[in-house]
Design brief:
This protein has an 8-stranded mixed beta sheet with strand order 1-4-3-2-5-6-13-12, with helices on both faces. The chain is an alpha/beta fold. It is about 35% helix and about 25% strand. The longest helix has 21 residues, at about 55-75. The two termini are about 35 Å apart. It has a domain at about 55-200 and about 290-320: 3-Layer(aba) Sandwich (Rossmann fold), CATH 3.40.50.150. The chain has 9 helices and 13 strands.
Amino acid sequence: MAFTIDVHLSPDDVRRQMRNDALAGLQAEHKSIPPVWFYDERGSQLFEEITRLPEYYPTRAERRLLVAHAPAIAEMSKADTLVELGAGACDKTRILLDALQDAGTLARYVPFDVSDGFLRNAAATLSVEYASLAIHLVIGDFHHHLAEIPTEGRRLVAFLGGTIGNLDPSQRARFLFDLNCTMSSDDCLLLGTDLVKDRTRLVKAYDDEAGVTAAFNRNVLHVLNEQLAGDFDPELFSHVALWNEGTQCIEMRLRAGQTTEVTLHDAGITVQFHEGEELLTEISAKFTPEGVAAELMEAGFVVEGTWGADQGEFMLSLAHPYC
């Protein structure tokens, strides 16, 4: 079955938003760029490599939980529609699709992502594997386009991979509240969160020996060059991953190895980096079960079930809006 697609993020929209983010983030006292700009096609491929690295435990931990508990999740949600935010390569999608199919409810799949080409390729594969499944792609940014996600059916909205940890507390509160506003009382949210654990293990997950995460981190500079006619030399920047105890998160940074000047011609700015100065590219917050429950409740969700909290690795939470 051929899939349908809604595009809410055109190439011009991407460049416009990146320009705004570059103007705000690169000219700030403490330079930063949002992690959404990692994910051009090369960045998406590099991230898929990261998920297979021995150091990167979150994907394997979450997969084990999904394999063990997807039937229960399907039964509790009674969903006929799977909506996946940040679907990427749709790698874990099959576990949930199979569980919903086995429960006899599966009718449609709605993957949502910022990466157009990567998502189309994944959807093409799934349309062959699940011949009777209606697939409706949505290309967009969950900061701006949650309201554009189709609302038909009884939906299970999956936000997996610990991706919510890329948002700071105020952004998480806003995101969860906005998502709640798009959901009916019959819909459910399946949220994947990485848990606080041994700090050394956490850092290694973001600083692998093979250097794949370093390449992924530097890729954001290639994206800025391509989209905004920039002249970053990515090799002048080293990958840094550290644990911030105060905010309970991993921070990924790019550190300038020497003083350098960078111009983004299409943004109309020239920025100087001093030797040792860092550009914050991503945070990855880690959670406690109590903290996840409190944030969901604050945003108007009732938690129906959790899996994995007792193992201390990764946690899945199933919740529904209480309005």
